[in-house]
Amino acid sequence: MRLTRRTLLGGMAALPVAVRAQSLDYRIEPVEVGDGLWIVRGADAPIERGNGGAIANLAILAGDEAAILIDCGPSLRYGRVLDAVARKLTGKPVGHVFLTHLHPDHGFAAGAFANAEVAGTAEVRRELQATAAGYADGMYRLLGDWMRGTEPVVPAATVTAGERLVAGRRLVFAPMAGHSPADLVVTDVATGTMIAGDLVFHDRAPSTPDADLATWRKTLGTLAAMSHKGLLPGHGPFDPGGQAAIAQTLDWIDWLESSLRGSVAAGLDMVAAGEVAIPARFDGLKAARYELQRSVSHFYPRLEAELFPRADQ
Amino acid sequence: MLAIFMFAPVAMAAALPADPLGSPMWADHARVLFADAPVEFDRRVVVDMPMLAENQRVFPVAIDASALPDVKRIVLLADLNPIPVAIDYAPTGAAPVVSVRIKLDQRTPVRAAVLTGDGRWHINGAWIDAAGGGCSAPPVSRVKGDWAEHLGEVRARAVLVGAEARLRVAIRHPMDTGLVGNTPLYHVEELSVWRGETRLGSMKLWASVAEDPAIGLILPAAAGDTLTIRGRDTNGREIEGRVAVQAAP
Ligand SMILES: [Zn+2]
């Protein structure tokens, strides 16, 4: 039933000539940031036709007998290219795919790795079961043909907290929350690299469709104190020092929450709350206005309900 | 022919101008809403809204018609919604400004039609991309099952800016469209705002207004004034709230 709807949406979306003429090729260019650890950077932009939804960062790690992926991209088409790239880079087939959280830009390519073990926390599996169909409709509508053949995959394997040897590579798994109800942070012990998923954004405004800001704030404090060197954020450039991106994410979340509360207190409607001035210190953050407007949509009705006094008593 | 047109009264059957948005429903809606009144597309009607519906159940629209003289009515409609008209607002003492959240069922033109005292309608709007399902998805409170506990609760805030109050009112109501399962149509259908005995504005609402309607108005007021909100839903349930106008924070 879902497939029919998506096929229909994809077909309709593919109609405009300009879009059909555009080539649907993903260019995947890994950059080595440590011994046997490459990052692939997403476009620091919203999900749109121009980038095929390839907006999230991911990591490729070389293991003894297999390559390991932390997140894998937005679509089946992307996953197929990534599979070939990872194999060429490491000389090994992809054996393990870990999903950091439920969002489609990070994990909808999982179907391309049928021979690998796809893993996530029990919470991520639950989240995906509940939301994947809805997110898939949205992705097909936004991206059309880029998504052809993509079916969300609920991870078959379960990740728990702690240190574990994966294909001979020592990884520390830390299940957390804040950006979404279940975010997984993976730290590669050999290189000291923290792969933070969307708990950390860098020079790109954080997105909040499933966020709990108070929890996120606490988690960022925990991440700052966890042992690591470099940090790969979910979106935006690699942070070699490992702290600047955490601090910037925290700064945005603090500002966002006080801005939204201030707008409610000043009697602004949602449209105006999305148009307030963004402080100059965030000038370097891509997609800042876009994410502010999305966050207004995510939080404003709840905040008004919380902050407006009852008028009928 | 020419003579007939020259002597025709202003309000008589003016030809409907071509729709700049090219909506398939434009002519049908225009016939019902405007009958034979003259209609023009007019940039003085400001319809402010995000270009993409992040949440098609809660899509914010802010309309400002204060560049027009003598505004009598402000109608908000989404052409391709199953319930196209969301609100019909008559600002009798209030500024011709209103914000509200609506449901979007699919990609659709969203527009404001503003009637001025000379009998002319002034229209502006834009296409909005939506994922679909805003009208045919159940309200969150119906899914959670707690809607009845909070039905009719009114929350409000009025902040003084100069000689005007920015009033925001939020009413707990499922705003059932009648299009989901067996739940019949059930929505807030009327609201009015008063300062003392003076009615400053009145509004008709339909079920394409988002669940838990949140309305923003601008009204003449002074600090310490009390504004009263009165209304009724389609079951005849009365809605009433009072809010004191406060100085800006
Ligand atoms: Zn995310």
Question: Helices, strands, pairings?
Answer:
The complex is a heterodimer of chains A (313) and B (249).
Chain A: H1 2-13, H2 17-21, E1 31-34, E2 37-40, E3 58-62, E4 67-70, H3 76-90, E5 94-98, H4 104-107, E6 117-121, H5 122-143, E7 157-159, E8 162-166, E9 169-176, E10 183-188, E11 193-195, H6 213-225, E12 231-232, H7 244-265, H8 270-273, H9 288-307
Helix pairs in contact in A: 1-5, 6-7, 7-9
Chain B: H1 2-7, H2 26-34, E1 39-41, E2 46-48, E3 59-64, E4 71-78, E5 85-90, E6 97-102, E7 108-116, E8 121-128, H3 140-144, H4 147-150, E9 154-161, E10 164-171, E11 188-195, E12 198-205, E13 214-220, E14 226-233, E15 238-247
Parallel strand pairs in B: 1-8, 9-15
Antiparallel strand pairs in B: 2-3, 3-6, 4-5, 4-7, 5-12, 6-13, 7-8, 9-10, 10-13, 11-12, 11-14, 14-15
Radius of gyration of chain B: 19 Å
- Given helix and strand content, the structural type of chain A is alpha/beta
Strand content of chain B: 35-45%
- What is the spatial order of strands in the main beta sheet of chain B? 1-8-7-4-5-12-11-14-15-9-10-13-6-3-2
Mean pLDDT of chain A: 91
Which regions of chain B are unreliable across 5 or more consecutive residues at pLDDT < 50?
Answer: 1-12
- Write down the domain tally of chain B: 1
The gyration radius over C-alpha positions of chain A equals: 20 Å
Task: Give the amount of beta strand of chain A, in percent.
Answer: 15-25%
Assembly classification: heterodimer
* Beginning-to-end CA distance, first to last residue of chain A: 48 Å
Ligands (ions, cofactors included) = zinc ion
Task: Report the order of strands and helices of chain B.
Answer: HHEEEEEEEEHHEEEEEEE
Mean pLDDT across the residues of chain B is: 89
For this structure, the CATH topology of chain A is Metallo-beta-lactamase, Chain A
Family (chain A): Belongs to the metallo-beta-lactamase superfamily. Class-B beta-lactamase family.
Protein name (chain A): Quinoprotein relay system zinc metallohydrolase 1
Organism (chain A): Sphingomonas yantingensis
GO molecular function (chain A): hydrolase activity
